[in-house]
Amino acid sequence: MITFVFNQKFMKKNQGTLVQSLSLSAAIILVISSVIGSGVYKKVAPMTGELMSPKLVLLAWLLAGVISLFGALSNAEIAGMMANSGGEYFYFKKIYGKFIAFIYGWSTFITIKTASVASIAYVFAHSFNALIKLPSFDTATEQITFLGIFKPFEDFGVKMVSIILIIILTFINTRGLKNGALLSSWITKLVIMGLATIVITGLIFGKGSFSNITTNATSYVDNGWGNFDFIKALFAAMLAAFWAYEGWNTVGFIGAEIKNPNKNLPIALFTGMMVIIVTYLLVNFTYLYILPADELINVSKTGNQIAAVAVIGHFAGAIGITLLSIIILITTLGCTNSTIIMPPRIYNAMALDGLFFKRAANIHPTYNTPNDALWMQCIWAIMLVLSGSFDQLTDMLIFAAFFFYGITALGVFILRKREPNTPRPYKVWGYPIIPALFIVFCVALIIITIIGKPREAGLGLVLMMSGIPFYWYWNKKEKVA
Question: What is the DSSP string of 332-354?
Fold first, then answer.
């Protein structure tokens, strides 16, 4: 039995409540649909450009998957103990106090999840544009800048489709969690079928060769495993893969709405991640089986071309490319929907604590959804689409996300010591090695990002800390009240 304690002064009359309506299978679907987005189609080319070796590319996909699984397993122990609406916000508040919890929630709103929504919706719109040419302004209008940085009229047709998609999916999710989850369920099934089709047709009709897997690029240089250049290249490739794996933790945001959450949430995390890892390895093996490393590197150098399109075009021509574009549309539709569903539960939990915009505390009395929080997220994601700045924000996303992933895993150790007798429906496998390895990797990733991409790391920290004045204001107001 889960008890919710709400701050009554933030509640409307006739207020609804979050209800446990999602089954285990629905939770697994949400894990999968929250993760599988544009990365599975795009990232193999830049990863090959970094490592110059198909075998090393597959290793990077496997390592990134295993590390993400370690994070999910560590997260699952805490999620099983504290299955509640808000995910990590709720965990951090209990483990570290409300300041760290607020910084996490603010970072989620200002960049981590809203930038993901904007970015994935933008990929959807670009794929739509490949099928049906969207209107655009003349060059002079497209070059109009705002504050000397943003170009709101650039690719305006693509941006409008992105915005319309975000609005429609937000509206669907204000009509009940089951509606959004049902949409994700159908889309995820179509996505898995589409990816399976790529693997089967590619291996049978793709005219590939196992020699493509074993043959390195012509510019490959064997620096040895201990060489720092090799380590940097491996981490750069894994960063690309981590974007494809990003999103596995978001199912924790709706812990209060999953049936028997203390048992089912850990199962959903583990099962969903295993399906994703196997899927990614099979799909990327197919890409590398069909196209030699040098051709994939050329795809990476073009900048705008999607690797999967080049692979399918290699053996299926224009018809194959059209079908793939439809699959990418369906995939990004599902991932955008799942990314929209869950973060507003964080903003709702923060508002109930008096640490976010007051209206986000409202739950719709009929649909039992945090509608105001959903529309706040929608508006900010639209602003990111118009600004065109979300690509830079997503570069910083992994840096910010792994900081919080790391301190979640650290929380496993803290709670084991602080609350040894608290019931744990699930205990992380391989404790203390699994969570310790994950923490070490998070630290290494942060350090290497600061060294290799100081601008992105610095901007990421600035965005994370931009919430401090808001925290000071809301916290002071809460104390006075």
Answer: HHHHHHHHHHSTHHHHHHHHHTT
For the chain, which domains are there?
21-480 (1.20.1740.10)
DSSP one-letter code for 111:
I
Handedness of CA 50, 438, 58, 126 (dihedral sign): negative
Cβ-based burial of 74 (10 A; exposed 0-12, middle 13-18, buried ≥19): buried
Q: Give the tens place of pLDDT for each residue, 174-188.
A: 988 777 777 778 888
What does pTM read for this prediction?
0.80
Q: Which amino acid is at 293?
A: A
Residue 6 pairs in a beta bridge with: none
Task: Report which residue type is found at 334.
Answer: G
Q: How far apart are the first and last CA of the chain?
A: 31
- The CA distance from 25 to 31, in Å, is 10
Neighbours of 447 (CB within 10 A): 11
In terms of Cβ atoms closer than 10 Å to its own Cβ (0-12, 13-18, 19+), residue 41 is buried
Burial of 123 (0-12, 13-18, 19+ CB in 10 A): buried
Peptide bond into 152 cis (omega under 30): no
Closest CA to 154 of 368, 453, 387: 387
Q: How many CB atoms lie within 10 A of CB 149?
A: 9
- The one-letter amino acid code at 255 reads G
Q: Within a 13 Å sphere around the CA of 1, how many CA atoms are in the beta-carbon half?
A: 1
- The alpha carbon torsion through 441, 445, 448, 454 (nearest 10 deg) reads -160
CA distance 45 to 27: 31
pLDDT digits 0-9 by tens, 353-407: 999 999 999 998 888 889 999 999 999 999 888 886 555 666 667 778 888 999 9
The token pair at 201 is: 């047709």
What would the DSSP string read from start to end of 151-175?
A: -TTTTHHHHHHHHHHHHHHHHHHHT
Distances from the Cα of 75 to the Cαs of 51, 254, 255, 407, in angstroms? 30, 14, 12, 10
